[in-house]
Amino acid sequence: MNGDPGDCRAFIPSAGSGNGVVAVGLCSTGDRRRPPVGRKYHLFYVQKVLNFHDMRYRGILLVIINIFAASTLVKGQSYNIKSLEGRPATINFHYIPATDSSDGSFFINFLKDTLYLYDYLAIDTVKLLNEAFLDIEYARRGGSNEGFSKQLLLCVSEGKLCPALHVDSYTNWDNRNAYQLKNASEYLLFKLGVTLSGNNSDSYKLKLNIHNEYSGHLKSKANYKYDRTKFLLFDKQSKAFYSGYEQLTGDYTFCDLKEKIKLKKYIKSKIPVVEIEKEKYYFINGNWYIRDKSNFFSMKL
User: Fold this and answer.
1) Dihedrals φ, ψ of 142, to 5°?
2) pTM of the model
């Protein structure tokens, strides 16, 4: 699949491609992310690619789309929790498995609300915290000798999914046995664990258990290894945990779906933030972001 980076193409793999399903609307080779599952989304991508005006092809395309969605989407587990209002709620998981050439996708559904996570490799653990939060840790793709995971704390309020926290929870880089590399003695490990106290929105407090270590630097003072704890409070209006607030005023760029899709927004507000070691996470309009100057990148990527 060659061409302009923004060019999307519909294609049907050959019999020898391995998966034997129709792939619709995959973007250029530089972009491994898929559009959301669903007839209307795939139809949009196919229409954009083919730029067709003949309605005779619409029925054929809908058949292709349905085959693709049914063949790739995997039903996962269901979890019962209580909403912040105390009502029972069932959260359902769905997956598009990762392949050798593309990241997977992870879809979390409650009633008519769906949260899409695009940087997904596998579920590590799912825990229920105080009956009201799902603590989801999932792996994302890494390189050689690397491991990465993200952690999502999810609750339900007023019929909606609420990502109360979404941060990096595990980073491992181990080159101690990679003798062919220049820095063959380097080792890095970051691990995050959480425990929740309290039984309602007024009393929730999240304890962060942080382990951080690095070794291999020629100057021993640059090496470190430590454990520390930190506490987050719960903002019941935003329905998110925070360590503080930061005033944002100005025009900012937001990357929500793909790195190539950017939206500019003007913000003038105090934003809940969570600081974990050298990383800072911002909760803006129901989503968590990391920041690079005036750019915000979604944790869903």
Assistant:
1) -125, 180
2) 0.74
